[in-house]
Amino acid sequence: MPARTHTLAAVAALGLLALTGCGTEKAGASSDAHPASGEGHTIRATQLSHVTTPHQATGMTLLEGPVLAKDGDLRLVDVTAPPGEPKVISVDVKTGDHKGVYTDKTGAYTSAQISPHDGRVHLTEYQSGDIVSIAQDGSDPRTFFSGKVDGSPMNPDDIAFDDDGNLYVSDLHGMKTGEAEGRIVRIDRDGEKTTILADKLAHPNGVMFDPEQKGLWISELATDTVSYLLLDADKTTVTTQHEAIHVDGGVAQTDSIAVDAEGNLYQALHGRPAMAVFSKYGERLGTVEVPAKEAKGLQSATNVAITPGGRAAYMTVSGPQGGYVYEFDALAKGIRLSNGG
């Protein structure tokens, strides 16, 4: 999730870059890829919780990274929260009640994901390039990863974990207009070894495994494309890579990605409070929409968590009106991989 395109221009005071501009075609991309047409049927989302209002210090709010914790409540981040205000928030999915569980002075966190290895919440910090982990109750903050990858720092956005607890991170890598320098980076579960799986990407955002964990789905915000990266058995090398879906988003751009047990893709949209849903073969199955009367003050649906073993899905939505969680029924049951990204 990140720091989304035009929205983060307003948070220069936090040191974030404005994520703007067009990307260039990545190496190996097919110039004649067939776009998926139509929007399928409408999947109605209903408001669960009004979580935040725009911050006076930053003029905005941007919710991201919903993930269901072991207590059954959501954890999510507010990317633009200023120092001292809640940066990780817990939302009761039964009542919509919410409370801050973690803050600090400097972090601009763009996603949250729970490691299957140690059960801790891992947060991507866009500005420093660090990945921070906290206990699920917000205590015991630690720096899980810090430093350069292949000689240059990361600007990490989203995270996917394999079953062994290794991380797969979308790295915006500076995200300059007209440049395709983004990366997908693998970090082993002890935070020591890094591997660049793919590079020269046009502002990579979403990253998520397919249900079999044979490959990664990635979205490139600057090209409105979703690509599939088939991995080797060790998940340390991309064996094939192809552009799989072109999202006809108009002014909206591809944000984070989730999957369900059937392999369906839930592609969040920055610039529209909606999610596009595709089959694993690229067929447009539907569009998750908030009610029209509520959409006026909302700009983006950034991410979703689908309940493992159930179909209840929780989508983070933000705009000038504030930051919200909406709920809807997913097309199939969730799995561990469906739980945030």
Terminal CA distance:
8 Å
Average pLDDT number: 89
Low-confidence blocks of residues: 1-37
Annotation, overall tally of beta strands: 27
**General form:** globular
Strand portion, in percent? over 45%
Indicate the radius of gyration in whole angstroms.
18 Å
Structural class: mainly beta
Please identify the oligomeric state: single chain
* Number of helical stretches of at least 4 residues: 1
> How would a textbook summarize the main sheet?
9 strands, mixed
Helix content: under 10%
What is the H/E order? EEEEEEEEEEEEEEEEEEEEEEEEHEEE
In short:
The protein has about 350 residues and is mainly beta.
What does this structure look like?
The structure is a single chain. The protein is an all-beta fold. It has 1 helix and 27 strands. It has one helix at 292-295, and strands at 41-44, 46-52, 63-68, 74-78, 88-91, 98-102, 109-114, 121-125, 131-134, 142-145, 148-149, 152-153, 156-161, 167-171, 182-187, 194-201, 204-209, 215-220, 225-231, 238-246, 253-259, 265-270, 274-278, 284-289, 300-306, 312-319, 322-329. Strands 1, 2, 21, 22, 23, 24, 25, 26 and 27 form a 9-stranded mixed sheet that branches. Strands 3-4-5-6 form a 4-stranded antiparallel sheet, with no helix packed on it. A hairpin with a 2-residue loop joins strand 11 and strand 12. It is globular, with a radius of gyration of 18 Å.
Record the SSE blueprint.
Elements: E1 41-44, E2 46-52, E3 63-68, E4 74-78, E5 88-91, E6 98-102, E7 109-114, E8 121-125, E9 131-134, E10 142-145, E11 148-149, E12 152-153, E13 156-161, E14 167-171, E15 182-187, E16 194-201, E17 204-209, E18 215-220, E19 225-231, E20 238-246, E21 253-259, E22 265-270, E23 274-278, E24 284-289, H1 292-295, E25 300-306, E26 312-319, E27 322-329
Parallel strand pairs: 1-24
Antiparallel strand pairs: 2-27, 3-4, 4-5, 5-6, 7-8, 8-9, 9-10, 11-12, 13-14, 14-15, 15-16, 17-18, 18-19, 19-20, 21-22, 22-23, 22-25, 23-24, 25-26, 26-27
